[in-house]
Amino acid sequence: MYRQAKYDEPLIFELGKKGRRAHLSPRCDFSRDDIKIPENMKRITPPDLPELHEGEVMRHYVHLSQMNYCVDTNTYPLGSCTMKYNPKVNETIARSEKMMYLHPNQPVETVQGILEVLYDLQMSLGELAGLPHTTLQPPAGASGEYTGLALIKAYHVDNGETQRDEIIAPDSSHGTNPASTVLNGQKLIEIKSNEDGRVDIDALKAAVSDRTAGLMLTNPNTLGIFEKDIIEMSNTVRDAGGLLYYDGANFNAIVGKIRPGDMGYDVLHFNLHKTFATPHGGGGPGSGAVCCNDILEPYLPVPTVNHDMDKDYYYFDYDRPKSIGKVHGYHGNIAVALRAYAYIAALGEIGLKNTSDQAVLTANYAMRKMEKIDGLRLSHTSAIPRKHESVLEATPFLRNHDVSGMDIAKMLISRGLHAPTVYFPLIAHEALMMEPTENENKERIDQYVQVLEEEMDKARKDPDYAHQAPKWTSIGRVDDAYAIRNLTLSWKMMKEKQEE
Ligand SMILES: *Cc1c(COP(=O)(O)O)cnc(C)c1O
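A: This is the predicted complex of the input protein with pyridoxal-5'-phosphate.
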């Protein structure tokens, strides 16, 4: 038997009635036979489209858009995701006709404008990273990681050191780090964090060998803690012949403050869709731009965007014999790059630094308020202040009231607020990971924490209230374990299961 979620929002397929129409198109003044579609490519059955009145179509989609939760409607402190406000001017630029009608196959002389933008963005990112060469091809952070690790691999192979196949990463790292390593055919060596929540230097020293391809480090790490021994770490890996990869997805805390290149790092990925605005989430388009130093430059994906200074001419350089090849169709998600360019250009050097200051201040303010709530405690208390985010543990609450971190998150949803990231990183217990970003002012944080306190009060009196949350949402508490074992990924699959 298939267990149906409490879900009363009909799908558009369920609203359709045969013969209803949203739009009347003019009659064709040519015969279908005039359209020269090869026989084997013609469809045999008509598409299974819902038929309904335009007004109903409109209501359906407008209602769905109102059910959406987004930074434009409320606080969205999802840790390690940097859900920041996206200036609307970026959207206007990304949707301008000049952008929309560009085609990647156009001759280069007709696209000098966008190439200049991409080139300038590459330069700006290179400057922020302290690593001068950039590719904008990778379409996500994970894909940037894959690309960066592929550069490291290509470098070692080129130097005849094919045995260097181990990537070292701390146990606080984002789940994409091990995944990118494995996809690259490299072996992950996980090292433990110490009591401070930082990389254990002795564990790192014990892990390096002549098989070390590189270290993959997130800094500030996913606990929001800056790796203060970063220079010693770089030296340790470099002395062993390894290279240094910087996961820059948490760059929001350090933009314009420090540069990974100056800390000895060889390659880094940015999440343009986190640090430099762009609506993201749900797997939407992103950009995991990668910057590297001179030794890795020859291996960058093909083509790179270059500038001929003498002729003041921008071009794609395909003549890259050592390149790892392409990592994405054409040149990456250009609209995301364009938004990042607009964001950086609008804020400038001082503006970017201020953004970081504000993000860090807000994160620490929220952390200090939340740790005072009875039942929550800060993880890894020896590292204060934090950077862009902090992790609170609901362990005392679970012990005393049988109400978990997950229950707390669901209660916040009942109140119409987005929860922090839960149960990540794995080295914290009952984790609630909070990253308000620079978006949120003091009043918003105060309000958020007040709602959190009110809900935890209710849970103290009645733990069942917490176990049954969220209330008043179209979908109630989902049975995660059941859902993962019985993946139902489409409406058709759901119907089939219901009929079983
Ligand atoms: C978000 C994130 C990633 C992955 O980025 P995606 O664009 O989601 O693939 C990698 N590392 C860290 C630390 C992140 O926060």
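The first strand starts at residue 133 and ends at 135. Confidence is low (pLDDT under 50) at residues 1-6.
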